[in-house]
């Protein structure tokens, strides 16, 4: 859908939903002014959907775009779309805004409403018992003075792609990524938690990495469940000394980590409990 109140559903593979390159995706495609978000629809539930709709609008503004759709309008478009799937289909929801060229091929996007669409795609949830192996990467998260780290912007992701490619070339699934100071920030695609002596720790947001919506939800749920959760500066050595490590993100919610560069972890009690707490909360509130 582009423009306020225009809703066009394209049913088919999203690869086939053509966008005229010099009209709709111009500034976004040439100069990287795209923002997106990701959310889930599983068993009739879309946990924290409104927070994801709010974030994609905030991300657009951070890139000086002019989003015409409100979070509530995006939320409604998503519900109209997901209801078209047969019950029980696991759907991945991706709203997106992109910059429109102002007519002079300039660096600034036009002050007209940004391009907008939502992609819905059937993507199964990963098995919650499937673990991943992490390694280090030479590539770091930028700071706000380098790039728009306060947005979920497409232009940040080629850097994450090279983190992931480097980790995979070493035979691992993902990277544990440093911030500009060399402390642990997140993985290339999700936030990270560690457990030591029963206390849960996660890097404190410092403007360099995405303070995830799923991360915040898990902090609140674990605290309400009686766990001590500390947001603080964490080093790679802290992760080497951890009893348990797990990732959080909207795609698969909680992903247990089995190894960081030769240090092995159990699929621990906290990650299992976090996954249960999340879906219990979603069933009663989302
Ligand atoms: N960090 C990065 C780099 C991500 O791509 C994601 C997934 N959006 C996350 C963290 C997790 O954020 P959220 O829980 O809001 O999906």
TrEMBL record:
Keywords: Amino-acid biosynthesis, Aminotransferase, Branched-chain amino acid biosynthesis, Pyridoxal phosphate, Transferase. Its EC number is 2.6.1.42. It comes from the Bacteria. Transmembrane segments: none annotated. It catalyses: L-valine + 2-oxoglutarate = 3-methyl-2-oxobutanoate + L-glutamate; L-leucine + 2-oxoglutarate = 4-methyl-2-oxopentanoate + L-glutamate; L-isoleucine + 2-oxoglutarate = (S)-3-methyl-2-oxopentanoate + L-glutamate. One of its GO terms (cellular component) is cytosol. One of its GO terms (molecular function) is L-isoleucine-2-oxoglutarate transaminase activity. Gene3D superfamilies: 3.30.470.10, D-amino Acid Aminotransferase, subunit A, domain 2 (3.20.10.10). It holds the Pfam family Aminotran_4. Its cofactor is pyridoxal 5'-phosphate. One of its GO terms (biological process) is branched-chain amino acid biosynthetic process. The keyword Transferase applies. Pathway: Amino-acid biosynthesis; L-leucine biosynthesis; L-leucine from 3-methyl-2-oxobutanoate: step 4/4; Amino-acid biosynthesis; L-valine biosynthesis; L-valine from pyruvate: step 4/4; Amino-acid biosynthesis; L-isoleucine biosynthesis; L-isoleucine from 2-oxobutanoate: step 4/4. Belongs to the class-IV pyridoxal-phosphate-dependent aminotransferase family. Acts on leucine, isoleucine and valine. This is Probable branched-chain-amino-acid aminotransferase. It comes from Roseicyclus elongatus DSM 19469.
């Amino acid at each position: 859908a582009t423009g306020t109140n225009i809703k066009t559903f394209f049913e088919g593979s999203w690869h086939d939903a053509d966008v005229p390159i010099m009209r709709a995706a111009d500034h976004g495609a040439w100069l990287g002014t795209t923002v997106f978000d990701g959310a889930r629809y599983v068993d009739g539930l879309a946990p924290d959907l409104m927070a994801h709709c709010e974030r994609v609008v905030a991300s657009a503004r951070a890139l000086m775009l002019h989003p015409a759709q409100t979070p509530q309008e995006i939320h409604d478009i998503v519900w109209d779309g997901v209801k078209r799937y047969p019950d029980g289909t696991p759907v991945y929801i991706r709203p997106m805004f992109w910059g429109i060229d102002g007519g002079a091929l300039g660096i600034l996007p036009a002050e007209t409403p940004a391009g907008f669409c939502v992609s819905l795609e059937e993507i199964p949830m990963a098995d919650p018992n499937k673990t991943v192996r992490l390694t280090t990467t030479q590539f770091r998260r930028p700071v706000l003075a380098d790039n728009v780290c306060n947005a979920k912007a497409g232009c940040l992701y080629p850097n994450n792609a090279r983190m992931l490619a480097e980790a995979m070339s070493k035979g691992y699934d993902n990277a544990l990524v440093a911030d500009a100071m060399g402390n642990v920030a997140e993985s290339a695609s999700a936030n990270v938690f560690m457990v030591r002596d029963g206390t849960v720790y996660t890097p404190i947001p410092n403007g360099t990495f995405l303070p995830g919506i799923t991360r915040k939800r898990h902090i609140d749920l674990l605290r309400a469940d009686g766990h001590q959760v500390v947001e603080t500066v964490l080093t790679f050595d802290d992760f080497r000394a951890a009893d348990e490590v797990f990732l959080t993100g909207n795609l698969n919610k909680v992903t247990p980590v089995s190894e960081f560069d030769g240090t092995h972890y159990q699929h621990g009690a906290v990650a299992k409990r976090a996954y249960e707490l999340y879906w219990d909360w979603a069933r009663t509130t989302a």
